[in-house]
Amino acid sequence: MDPLYADGVGVAVVLITLLKVLVAFVFTLVATMFMVWFERKIIADMQHRIGPNRAGPWGILQTLADGTKLFFKEDLLPDKADRRVFRLAPVLAVVPAFLAFSVIPLGGNFTDGDGTVSIFGHRTFLQLADPPVGVLFFLAMSAIGVYGIMLAGWASGSKYPLLGSVRASAQIVSYEAALGLSVVAVLLVTRTLSTNGIVAAQSARFGVDWNLVATGVVPAVVFLIAGTAELNRPPFDLVEAEQELVGGFNTEYSSIRFALFFLAEFMNTVTMSALIVTMFLGGPSGPVFGPEVMRSWFLPLFWFFLKLVLFLFTFVWFRGTLPRLRYDQLMDLGWKVLIPLSLGWLLLLATIRVAQNEGWSVPIAMAISLVVLGGAFGLLNLSLRAARRNREHEAEVYA
Amino acid sequence: MTVVENQDSIDYHARLRNGRAVLRMSEVEAAQRGEMLADENDETMIINMGPQHPSTHGVLRLMLELQGEQVVRSKPIVGYLHTGMEKTAEDLTFLQGPTNVTRMDYASPLFNELVFSMAVEELLGIEVPERGQWIRMLMCELNRMSSHLLFQATNGMDIGAVSVMIYGWRDREELLRLFEKITGVRMNHNYIRPGGVAADLPDGWRDDLLRILEPLPGRLDDLDVLLTGQNIWRDRLQGVGVITTQEAIDLGATGPILRSTGYDWDLRRDLPYLHYDQVDFDVVVGTFGDCFDRYAIRLNEIRESMKIVYQILEKLPKGDYKVQDKKVTPPPRARIDESMEALIHHFKLYTEGYKVPEGEVYVAVESPRGELGCYLVSDGTSKPYRMHIRGPSFVNLQCLPHMMADGLIADTVAVISSVDPIMGEVDR
Fold first, then answer.
1. Cα–Cα nearest to B140, from B114, B106, B103
2. Whole-angstrom Cα distance, residue B114 to residue B372?
3. Is B411's CB within 8 Å of A326's CB?
């Protein structure tokens, strides 16, 4: 619970909350602008190009220029489109993208403090909201975002967007499962769903207490891969696969509606990176020193953004390096690799947790669960092989 | 004994459709038969890919019948870039011919000029001087490299490896700069003309060329790291768009498509022209006939071409770069001011052109896309009576429905890309 609301709600508290809303809103917009520019610059460097360099210093205002341009473009509505849903879809994509960011703790001294900062004499967390179900809230928001994409493709009344949205629904539903399972691994270790609590749980020692270590790296990797798929970013950008579906779900969109999709996509990228940082890399926690302003304001923010940019760069790096997967390969990766892997890892973590609670010998419990998991892996492998054999047999029969 | 089938029966249509014979019908007929077959369980969707589509390499149009994401049948439709170049050729003199043909396959223009010039020379019965021949070989191999680099770029782009696109364009760009220095233009050079080449190689060309060739092996190795050894890349291309040797031969496919099936056929080696019998190079051959083989063949052909270029650099003789018969090639500019005869030759060449003896000839060269042929008929005047180009892209395009059958949409893109069609050559 945010200490801001501990002593009842007065005018100052409301104003501080409004200020936080404003800051979070502006921050998301600016971060998105920065992300678009950052991506274009980095990818240009990787591809021996210069990238945007006209608008503002180093082209940093390019996104603003593009957005303004799109705003003044003609807004086309296809004849066959379902008019209401067509207009609703971009909003459905962009609003959850804004909301999801509100549960991310941006700063506050977690290392030797309680994670609060002082604003006008009130102590509060540097995050817009800290609901007890913060992580679930994020998952819910990203799931609602899918509706934006699905409805956009469906309402366009056009074939390519329809294919794009069919891909989107299949892809995001499958990867949500893997994403959720790796989140559960974190919850098992930290014993809380609140994002603030998750950060607090991994703040005692820099690096060592991070969930990245505590959950044994695997959930973090699964989360990163599933997160990339969830964001529809390369190499999982089948939803908009430019070379196949000519833009996919947003083919029929123009003007500011297109800009909203674009905004939502990059905003989700920033939010996803922030969530990875929160869940696995200890959020804003890191070595702090110096006076109070440094300890609770400057350094935690610095650590948070450093980790954030690291992941933003990783996403851009993926895009610059990897070719796109094919639809069936994407499904294979999701259902046959990531979900069994995170499920198995979750069982392993759960066994260790129970063994600790019940006072059993941890190595023996681990050994037994490893044997069980090995058996399960073997069974899975056999069933996959059997399925492939059946398919080949069917193909021969019906050829 | 022939069995006359009832052509209205459902069975007959079903067989036509399953055998993909529908593809050979007109669009109207196919649509009609499609409707006759449709029942409530039929959930296929016809989708139009192109002529405006980022992956159809220009204005190729494909009609795809989809079951979900699976392509049930497909039909390539060409003609959107038809400009009547073959007919135009009948109105141009033999001297003007290369300007026309060079615009067909715009990714490898020098090969078009080469095949046309060789056909004219065959009719004229003239022999190009040694240096001219070697310069032609040099330019063509450089052009093959630039064309294959373009393929790497577009192929990478189509599969989703965006960076590779820029890498391919970058290396091609340097070759084009060299072409500009040698021929005056980056594309559509009109450099190889009947009787030789338009001009001798300029000063400093050798240093420029060596400067381009030096970093190229490293950059090709980079492609190996980024693509060849990459799991996603292999998954996307291996076993996709498979075609057998027999199918490829039946359809008339040549070049990397035929070679990818394991059939060892390269005109440079098997029917040598220019001086290809005097250089040492390997013909790269695949095994499985899939998209990956076609990608790998093109990548390695760049290396083979580099090998040839280095040999040409050693063997390039001194001497004339065009025949000195002033009835065929124009006199040097300086001579026109000094000699009345040169002035007359110049005037006659650029107004009437030269007369080519009556006859017909077919000449073929190995272009980056396959067998590029030129069939030329002369009626004894200074303009061809008929010119026909056997465009490898056009013939290779026939393989598309066979390679795409039962693939996914993403495979369709990979297959089009691996055929590497140049629509200018397809439609002519």
1. B114
2. 10
3. yes
Tell me the sheet residues that pair with B352: none
Q: What is the mean pLDDT of residues B80-108?
A: 89
Chain B residue with minimal CA distance to A328?
B408
Nearest to A235 among B54, B157, B232 (CB): B232
Helices marked H in chain A — which ranges?
Answer: 11-46, 62-71, 83-100, 134-155, 159-190, 195-201, 211-214, 218-230, 242-245, 255-280, 292, 299-321, 327-332, 339-358, 362-398
Predicted ipTM of the assembly: 0.83
- Sheet containing strand B384-390, edge to edge, reads B359-367, B370-378, B384-390
Residue whose structure tokens are 């030269």: B354
**Cβ pair A326:B167 closer than 8 A:** no
* B160 to A234: CB separation less than 8 angstroms, yes or no: yes
Comparing alpha-carbon positions, the chain B residue that sits nearest to A164 is B69
Distance from C-alpha of B281 to C-alpha of B289, rounded to nearest angstrom: 22
> Which chain B residues are closer than 8 Å to A319 by Cβ?
162
CB A142 within 8 A of CB A73: no
Contact B410 A235 (CB under 8 A): no
CA distance A27 to A23: 6
pTM for the structure as a whole: 0.86
Query: Among B156, B157, B408, whose Cβ lies nearest the Cβ of A328?
Result: B408
Say if residue B401 is preceded by a cis peptide, omega within 30 of 0.
no
pLDDT tens profile A356-373: 888 888 788 888 888 888
pLDDT in tens, A268-324: 899 899 989 988 888 888 787 878 777 778 888 888 889 999 999 999 998 888 888
CB-hemisphere CA count at 13 Å for B162? 20
| Cβ of residue A225 closer than 8 Å to a chain B Cβ | no
Cβ <8 Å between A245 and B157: no
What's the gap in Å between the CA of B311 and the closest CA on chain A?
A: 31
Least Cα distance to A261 among A271, A249, A274 occurs for A249
Sign of CA dihedral A241, A242, A243, A248: positive
Whether the bond into A235 is cis, omega within 30 of 0 = yes
Amino acid in position A158: S
Which residues of A fall within a CB distance of 8 Å from B55?
A: 243-244
**Count of CB atoms within 10 A of residue B277's CB?**
9
Contact B69, A163 (CB under 8 A): yes
Query: How long, in residues, is chain A?
Result: 399
Rounded to an integer, what distance in angstroms lies between the CA atom of residue A337 and that of residue B87? 59
Provide the 10 A C-beta neighbour count for residue A311: 21
A24-53 residues touching B, CB cutoff 8 A: 43, 46-49
Tokens standing for residue B165: 């696109």
Q: Which amino acid is at A196?
A: N
Where exactly are the structural domains of chain B?
Answer: 10-77, 88-427
In chain A, what residues touch B158 (CB-CB under 8 Å)?
243
Cα(A239)–Cα(B301) distance, integer angstroms: 35
Instruction: Note the CATH number of domain B88-427.
Output: 1.10.645.10
Is the Cβ of A237 closer than 8 Å to some Cβ of chain B? Answer: yes
Alpha carbons A108 and A112: distance in angstroms, whole number = 10
